[in-house]
Specification:
single chain, about 250 residues, alpha/beta, about 40% helix, binds adenosine-5'-triphosphate, binds magnesium ion
Length: about 250
């Protein structure tokens, strides 16, 4: 992925939530964003995914040069996939319909193409036996997996995740994060906000440490976790819980 930001500012009222962020990232498939609560991680993710507009500055992600223009952003959002913390599944539709509706209505798949694609993904992500259930009849981990499957169903080049495991218990967290690791191996570009440091360490090609609206440190997992330079990153890492296990 290419991720170039030039003096990006996002202001809510008179508060600068993102403060002159500049980045020049190339050839990284998985970029994760870590940092303390309120630091601006979700805001940055929403700018990159076209769900919020920057106040000023320039953003390029792969070949997309983002514009603060609703028409442009609607088209851009069709080309990416995003998984929000709260799944955003359609509650009145079965698991399989949650996938096929988006493929048919937004991405112009025929009924058969949509069904074939849904079957393929539901099987791959161990959801096939749940295909006719409503979201309420699925566990948290299954719902989150379904949201991930739906986001990737139309083969977007970019997938964004905002704390994909934050609503889950430890076992389901591992299940969902391993699902994301599977995606990494499929070659799609991922931008992930996470507070699971062990996951960040194992899945990331590049990590941004964001605090108070600034990228305070950035680098490879090795640089970030094994030789943090700033006191603030050292303190942040010392306060995080021990790693859980993720399969490779
Ligand atoms: N729509 C909004 N209006 C006003 N302030 C906002 C809005 N959205 C976010 N903020 C503020 O911007 C700051 C950054 O929020 P953001 O959600 O990006 O943080 P975060 O790093 O994702 O935090 P967390 O880890 O708790 O999810 C916070 O102080 C938040 O209160
Ligand atoms: Mg957030």
């Amino acid at each position: 992925m290419i991720l170039k930001l030039n003096n990006v500012v996002k202001t809510f009222g008179d508060v600068n939530v993102l403060n002159n962020i500049s980045l020049d990232i190339k050839n990284k498939n998985v970029v994760t964003i870590i940092g303390p609560s309120g630091g601006g991680k979700s805001t940055l993710l929403y700018l990159l995914s076209g769900y919020k507009e920057s106040t000023s500055g320039d953003i390029q992600i792969n070949e997309h040069i983002l514009k603060n223009d609703e028409k442009f952003l609607i088209e851009y959002r069709k080309q990416i996939g995003i998984v929000f913390q709260s799944y955003n599944l359609f509650p009145h539709l079965t698991a399989i319909k949650n996938i096929t509706l988006v493929l048919e209505k937004v991405h112009n798949y025929s009924k058969k193409e949509a069904n074939d694609r849904a079957f393929e993904l539901l099987t791959q992500f161990q959801l096939y036996e749940h295909k006719d259930k409503l979201p309420i009849a699925l566990s948290g981990g299954q719902q989150q997996r379904l949201a991930i499957v739906r986001a990737m169903s139309y083969k977007p080049e970019l997938l964004f995740f905002d704390e994909p495991s934050s609503a889950l218990d430890p076992e389901l967290t591992v299940e969902v994060l391993n699902t994301i690791k599977t995606l990494k191996n499929s070659g799609v570009n991922l931008v992930v906000v996470t507070h699971e440091m062990c996951f960040a360490r194992s899945v990331s090609d590049y990590i941004l440490y964001l605090e108070e609206g600034k990228v305070v440190e950035q680098g490879s997992p090795l640089e970030i976790f094994d030789s943090p330079k700033t006191e603030s990153l050292k303190k942040f890492l010392s306060n995080t819980l021990e790693c859980r296990k993720f399969s490779d």
